[in-house]
Design brief:
This protein is of the alpha/beta class. It contains 5 helices and 8 strands; from the N terminus they run βαββββαβαβαβα. Strands 5-2-1-6-7-8 form a 6-stranded parallel sheet. Helix 3 packs parallel to helix 4. About 45% of the residues are buried. The structure holds pyrazine-2-carboxylic acid (VGL) and zinc ion. The site of zinc ion has 7 residues, from loops.
């Protein structure tokens, strides 16, 4: 496997609120940070995302009378899991993890910013209609393949990989560079959906080994 100008590392939601102790903690979420830092060194093109909700967002349980976090609600665009308040715009919880070190990241996509619509995906909001602009950006940059990493495997990373495929990109999940929430079987379902959509799986070791032999972006040691 080689990766170069047609490849992009897509780093999903490596934010404080998804870390242990955070508002919507993903178990072992912090463990992805050093893995992503290593991987990013062999990609010339890196895009980051931030979950970026206004206060009172429709995906927050606190916005629905009588609702508790991790229940579901029916919103105008369909079923929505209700979450604890998280990643509120411009709060410390919405900031990227302080140890994430990707100085050459070119673009940060902020998603979930419409008050009434969630967006797990970096490409398409939960109404399945409103685009973030990422597909157009990647296409203009000549990207053909995206490598998806970050948090959470079964929500924002999986939805982004599926939508990458739907938009015509090759998509690869780097499984040890992701961690899951795993709510009511969501992780098994995500891997099934990903396989059915033709999303491939690899590991950071395999990618780094491939980079050592082929990748034009690898810094000389
Ligand atoms: C996410 C739930 C709610 C994620 C974001 O980044 O996977 N999950 N908002
Ligand atoms: Zn969110």
């Amino acid at each position: 496997m080689t990766y170069g100008a047609q490849d992009c590392l897509l780093v999903i939601d490596v934010q404080n609120d998804f870390m242990p102790g955070g508002a919507l903690a993903v178990p072992h979420g912090d463990e992805v940070v050093p893995v992503i830092n290593r991987l990013a060194q062999v990609f010339g093109h890196v895009v980051l995302t931030q979950d970026w909700h206004p206060a009172g967002h429709a995906s927050f349980a606190t916005s629905h009378a009588g609702a508790a976090p991790f229940q579901t609600a029916t919103l105008p665009y369909g079923e929505q899991v209700l979450w604890p308040d998280h990643c509120v715009q411009d709060t410390p919880g919405a900031a990227l993890h302080a140890d994430l070190h990707v100085p050459h990241a070119r673009l940060v996509i902020r998603k979930g910013h419409h008050a009434g619509v969630d967006s797990y995906s970096a490409f398409l909001e939960a109404d399945r209609t409103t685009k973030t602009g990422l597909a157009g950006y990647l296409r203009e940059q000549g990207v053909a393949r995206v490598f998806c990493v970050g948090l959470a495997t079964d929500y924002c990373v999986a939805w982004s990989a599926l939508d990458a495929r739907a938009a015509g990109f090759e998509a690869v999940m780097v499984e040890d560079a992701c961690r899951a929430i795993d709510l009511n079987g969501s992780l098994d379902k995500a891997w099934q959906d990903l396989a059915a959509a033709g999303v491939r799986r690899t590991t950071s070791d395999a990618l780094l080994a491939g980079a050592a032999s082929h990748n034009p972006w690898l810094p000389e040691s």
